[in-house]
Amino acid sequence: MKCSNRYIKYLTGLLMMLFSGMHSFAQQPTLSGTWVLQPVLPSDTAAGARPSISFNTGNSSFTGFTGCNDMSGNFKTKDGDLSFAKEIRLSKKICEGYNEKEFVMNLLRVNGYKFQDGILVLLINTTPVSRWTRKEQQAAL
Q1: Separation in Å, CA 26 to CA 15, 21, 30, 115, 119
Q2: Which of 49, 76, 77 is nearest to 65 (CA)?
Q3: Residue 72 and residue 29: Cα distance in Å, rounded?
Q4: CA 68/CA 71 separation, integer angstroms
Q5: What is the largest CA-CA distance in the chain?
Q6: pLDDT digits (tens, 9 = 90+) for 37-74
Q7: Confidence of residue 99 (pLDDT cuts 50, 70, 90)
Q8: Which of 34, 40, 74, 132 could form a disulfide with 54 if both were Cys (CB 3.0 to 4.6 A apart)?
Q9: Cα separation of 44 and 46, whole Å?
Q10: Which residues does 33 contact at the CB level (< 8 Å), separation at least 6?
Q11: What is the DSSP letter of 96?
Q12: Could you give the CA distance from residue 111 to residue 131 in angstroms, rounded to a whole number?
């Protein structure tokens, strides 16, 4: 009986470790999905809409909205590093009072990211450049 009790305790402990590890793994944030800019300056939404970005980590591509034009391109990521390919494709709408060129240049300067309380923080070296909130998926009716 002692052997079986020890075996049960061992299995119970092993299962608890496995399940607690799975729980913490499930809670890890991921870059995949759609993120919406948290505006800091009035110029961040001067065109009347908030920028967004959707990362597809499966094929290392992104689509999004600059606040004025649709955008798309590719990115690379590894161990907290993030870089956008130099060729970001943009639609051709003109928006008054919005510095889209600066927005795109900031994306091109990004070289890292981190998650902070569920917020995606894009970084240039260790300096935060922008903060993004995950866009909630709408349930299908």
Answers
A1: 16, 9, 10, 15, 16
A2: 49
A3: 23
A4: 9
A5: 80
A6: 998 876 666 667 889 999 999 999 999 999 999 999 99
A7: confident
A8: 34
A9: 6
A10: 54, 55, 134, 135
A11: T
A12: 14
